[in-house]
């Protein structure tokens, strides 16, 4: 009888250890995925005021846009991550500017560093990023407008009617992808209305999102970027140079 009880107890202990190990592995994998999930960053090379939508569309093919995309990709060597970029138009209710969207799988401090460097190099007032996180308060929405809706002016008007004040439009083959970063997490109803107007499927993800810089004064924004860069580089000494610099 004692031997049977001992065997039974041993089986329970082994099973408990296996279950605990599986749970820890799952939690570790989930944490790792959150830390290195796909981040989004939004930055413009434009420093002019009062651009209109047509100006912004023309700017997508400008030398400054091409240069900023190259700078973003070259920073991949600095943070040891692959960085992809897309040309875009940042649009709001009464204006627009040519922009880029960057994507990188990394942690939140690194995406903040990347965006701060791009904001500094492009002499911007502010940039914005989104970092996926299961318990984050923010949300990113991605709408996929169909081929018939590739007219940026029409898309912008429909988004205005839904109360979506700030959005980023990315022209892709066969669709226009619309990125909306909801820093306060309160745009769900307006997003659903916009998706209905655009007849567009929509996906979303929770996370952390924040503007870095200053809304109105360029010098203040540049000071914020500089501090973000200093803080990160103090914690990560000896970072390698950008990709192009390595070739020289």
Structure, described:
The chain is an alpha+beta fold and 248 residues long. The protein has 2 domains: 1-35; 37-247, no CATH class. Helices cover 46% and strands 28% of the residues. The protein has 9 helices and 8 strands. It has helices at 2-35, 53-59, 63-74, 76-79, 108-121, 152-161, 188-198, 218-235, 243-247; strands at residues 38-43, 83-92, 95-105, 126-132, 138-145, 166-172, 175-182, 202-213. An 8-stranded antiparallel β-barrel has the order 1-3-2-6-7-5-8-4, surrounded by 6 helices. Helix 5 crosses helix 8 (218-235). It is globular. The chain starts with a helix and ends with a helix. The model is unreliable at 1-6 and 12-34 (pLDDT under 50).
Q: Can you describe this structure in just a few lines?
A:
The chain has 248 residues and is of the alpha+beta class. It is built from 9 helices and 8 strands. Mean pLDDT is 87; it is low at 1-6 and 12-34.
- Tell me the fraction of residues in β-strands, as a range: 25-35%
Poorly predicted regions:
1-6, 12-34
User: What multimeric state do the chains show?
Assistant: single chain
CA gyration radius, whole angstroms: 22 Å
Could you give the count of β-strands? 8
Count of separate DSSP helical elements:
9
- How many discrete domains? 2
> In terms of structural class, how would the helical and strand content be classed?
alpha+beta
Shape: globular
The string of secondary-structure elements, in order, is HEHHHEEHEEHEEHEHH
Termini separation: 78 Å
Widest β-sheet, arrangement of strands? 1-3-2-6-7-5-8-4
State the helical fraction: 40-55%
Largest sheet: 8 strands, antiparallel, barrel
């Amino acid at each position: 009888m004692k031997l049977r009880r001992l065997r039974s107890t041993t089986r329970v202990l082994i099973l408990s250890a296996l279950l605990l190990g599986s749970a820890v592995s799952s939690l570790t994998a989930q944490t790792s995925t959150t830390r290195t999930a796909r981040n989004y960053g939004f930055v413009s090379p434009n420093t002019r005021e009062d651009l209109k939508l047509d100006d912004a569309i023309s700017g997508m093919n400008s030398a400054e846009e091409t240069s900023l995309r190259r700078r973003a990709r070259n920073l991949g060597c600095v943070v040891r991550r692959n960085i992809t970029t897309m040309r875009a138009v940042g649009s709001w209710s009464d204006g627009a500017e040519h922009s880029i969207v960057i994507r990188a799988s990394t942690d939140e401090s690194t995406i903040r560093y990347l965006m701060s460097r791009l904001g500094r190099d492009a002499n911007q007032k502010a940039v914005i990023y989104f970092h996926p996180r299961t318990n984050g308060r923010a949300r990113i929405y991605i709408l996929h407008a169909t081929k018939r809706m590739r007219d940026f002016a029409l898309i912008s008007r429909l988004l205005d009617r839904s109360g979506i004040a700030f959005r980023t439009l990315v022209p892709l083959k066969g669709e226009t992808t619309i990125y909306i970063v909801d820093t306060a997490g309160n745009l769900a109803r307006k997003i659903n209305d916009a998706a209905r107007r655009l007849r567009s499927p929509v996906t979303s993800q929770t996370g952390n999102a924040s503007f870095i810089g200053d809304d109105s004064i360029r010098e203040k924004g540049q000071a914020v970027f500089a501090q973000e860069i200093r803080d990160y580089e103090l914690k990560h000494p000896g970072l390698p140079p950008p990709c192009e610099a390595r070739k020289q």
